[in-house]
Specification:
The protein is of the alpha/beta class and 585 residues long. Helix content is 43%, strand content 13%. The strands form five sheets. An eleven-stranded mixed β-sheet has the order 17-16-15-14-9-8-6-7-4-3-19, with helices on both faces. The radius of gyration is 26 Å and the shape is globular.
């Protein structure tokens, strides 16, 4: 690799690390430590250790006795590694990042990995031993893990034997392809996770047949074409998150939750949020409630001529539609026959690792820059979420795309993951402060939205709540907490189902694939772990459980509508509509 290429590569890595950590490192001692970049993961106990310096500057301390014990254990294990190296005994490496035989066949590479893993483990132990408030400690743990992952030997050509072997095998072609792909990604400002040329919205993703029957500047409303001669009398309104595009619910026909609901005999309507530009830089949370969710509810009522609807919210979409139903309840209006919430936060006590990005300082900075107008860029949001799983969503692709010159394979979910959306600054700032920072939404009457007091306990509808067991964005215990907020005097109206896997893969688990498993327990307890301990694990998808719930609240079967819309709501364009095709980059 030429000096110029090395410089470009190093700069690109630095950009990635800065993007992943900029939100949590603004104006605090972590920033200088993260800038060091090349702490090298060398002796974490050296006098000039970046780790110890960072802890001191951050006002965190470690018990001297604990530090002494860790130091002794570290040098003991390092000495054993050195003895094995001298005697040519290969170390045991149990880490999937280094599973290839290339890492185990050469002594130098094997011991480079062994020392890296040793230092990484003791850096993590140091972070865990910090005497500090839990929120500060969590930030330190997160920052340490970011750097540990970034400095893996697998991320650099000079220390990656797999990439070196590929370089020799291809006569340098892999490196040239890698540099080309790196430069293309630098132009885009993000890492390519999939072959984006393989997909087109409306062509091979978001293909369920339907029509846009209403639009305003915030959203388009899609009505999907029935697949059965008869349908449930009450329609289903689906409100997806506005942080990403709706078609995570409608990727391919075989894994489309939208199509599945249509197949179950429901007249499905779906909100397709606009991807905000500067013309929407003044839009507020109140607007998303009044002119977004509430307007969608009203339009579906008018088209279907039904007072009651099955209402569905996914992630932030669930928070939005629950707020809307609470606002309507304060007005004496109760449009929900049932409410479905998938991986949704109403109680923000436990926000998992995302908590490291939210404190008074950071929220105040956002409010100063965006609170009165502006846009939160989609790429910044995408960088934040990628930082939660850096090995899977960042470094894995640095290694394959750039070091090995491999073209990423076509994968619909990762195509959607790369199709980010902006958020209006005022809306985003309100959401950060009143939910993540101050956790006010769960407190009856504390918030006023769209002119009305918000009391989630006033939502009068049976509720199906779903959480994913390995969700890093909405911990399943946090999703479970909604059972305490909704229908507090009639908890038997609430149902909780726990699915395997994470935030997205757990939700998009089609019944036809018969993969993974889920847990059910009709007896809701106050304690989530007690609920799980008494739950029954069932093989396959949780979707049929949801279908049964919807059918119970869908009303009688009637003749399917012959055409979309109604008087005053004609077809504006075919689904998926043009709003979803607007890209943020």
């Amino acid at each position: 690799m030429s000096d110029n290429s090395q410089t470009m590569y190093a700069n690109w890595l630095q950009q990635i690390m800065q993007q992943m950590t900029q939100q949590m490192t603004q104006q605090n001692p972590l920033q200088e430590w993260m800038k060091a970049g090349s702490m090298g993961l060398n002796n974490p106990f050296a006098q000039d250790s970046s780790m110890l310096t960072m802890l001191k500057e951050y006002g965190a301390e470690i018990d001297p006795a604990v530090l002494s014990r860790l130091q002794s254990e570290y040098f003991s294990e390092l000495g054993n590694l050195w003895k094995d190296f001298i005697s040519s005994k290969l170390p045991q490496i149990n880490d999937r990042r280094f599973s290839s035989t290339d890492w185990h066949q050469q002594t130098t590479h094997a011991y480079n990995v062994a020392v890296y893993l040793l230092n990484a483990r003791f850096l993590s132990l140091l972070a865990e031993s910090v005497q500090a408030p839990e929120k500060k400690k969590q930030k330190i743990r997160f920052a340490v893990q970011q750097m540990v992952d970034a400095m893996s030997p697998a991320n650099f050509l000079a220390t990656n034997p797999e990439a070196q072997a590929k370089l020799v095998e291809t006569g340098g072609e892999s490196l040239m392809k890698g540099i080309t792909q790196m430069l293309e990604d630098m132009q885009k400002g993000r890492i390519s996770l999939t072959d984006e040329s393989a997909f087109e919205v409306g062509k091979n993703v978001a293909t369920t047949e339907g029509s846009v029957v209403f639009e305003n500047r915030l959203f388009q409303l899609i009505q999907y074409k029935p697949l059965n001669k008869t349908v449930h009398q009450r329609p289903l309104l689906m409100v997806p998150p506005c942080i990403n595009k709706f078609y995570i619910l409608d990727l391919q026909p075989e894994n489309s939750l939208v199509r599945y609901a249509v197949e179950q005999g429901h007249t499905v309507f779906l909100v397709s949020w606009a991807n905000p530009d500067q013309s929407m830089s003044d839009v507020t949370w109140d607007d998303y409630i009044e002119h977004g969710a509430i307007k969608a509810l009203e339009v579906v009522q008018e088209i279907s001529k039904q007072d009651k609807l099955n209402v569905f919210g996914f992630c932030v979409g669930g928070t939005i539609v629950s707020t809307a139903l609470a606002v309507l309840a304060d007005r004496g209006v109760y449009p929900a026959s049932s409410l479905t919430l998938l991986t949704t936060l109403l109680d923000f006590t436990n926000t998992g690792v995302l908590d490291v990005f939210v404190d008074e300082l950071q929220v105040s900075l956002r409010e100063q820059t965006l609170g009165h107008g502006g846009l939160m860029p989609g790429r910044d949001l995408a960088s934040t979420f990628s930082s939660l799983r850096p090995n899977d969503l960042v470094w894995n692709y640095v290694q394959s795309n750039y070091l090995k010159g491999q073209k990423p394979p076509a994968f619909d979910l990762l195509y959607w993951n790369s199709d980010s959306t902006n958020l209006p600054g005022p809306m985003f700032c309100w959401y950060l402060r009143n939910t993540y920072l101050e956790n006010s939404l769960k407190e009856a009457g504390k918030l006023t939205v769209a002119g009305n007091k918000v009391d989630l306990s006033k939502i009068d509808a049976p509720v199906f709540i779903y959480g994913s067991k390995e969700d890093h964005i909405v911990p399943w215990q946090a999703a479970f907490a909604s059972t305490e907020i909704l229908n507090p005097k009639k908890k038997s109206r609430n149902r909780f189902v726990l699915g395997a896997s994470g935030h997205i893969a757990g939700v998009i688990n089609p019944a036809s694939k018969n993969k993974r498993s889920y847990w059910i327990n009709d007896k809701l307890t106050h304690d989530s772990q007690a609920w799980l301990d008494a739950a029954t694990e069932c093989p396959g998808s949780w979707w049929p459980e949801w279908a049964t719930f919807l059918a119970e609240h869908g009303g009688k079967m009637v003749k399917a509508p012959a055409k979309p819309g109604a008087l005053g709501y004609s077809e504006l364009e075919p689904a998926p509509g043009r709003y979803v095709k607007v890209r943020a980059d």
